[in-house]
Amino acid sequence: MAKFPEAEARWFRNVFVCRNCKAKVRAPILKVLAGKISCRKCGSKVLRTKRKK
Length: 53
Ligand SMILES: [Zn+2]
Known about the structure:
Elements: H1 5-13, E1 15-18, E2 24-26, H2 29-33, E3 47-49
Antiparallel strand pairs: 1-2, 1-3
């Protein structure tokens, strides 16, 4: 995966996963937090960040 923590953080912060249908949505975190992003597939606004456990 990414070599630098910084690059990795950038990658993971901009990718969200729909909790409803698990579709990946790439969007700036600010827009997601503002509730302006909804899932393309099912229209759900419940997104979580893509993160390693
Ligand atoms: Zn969805």
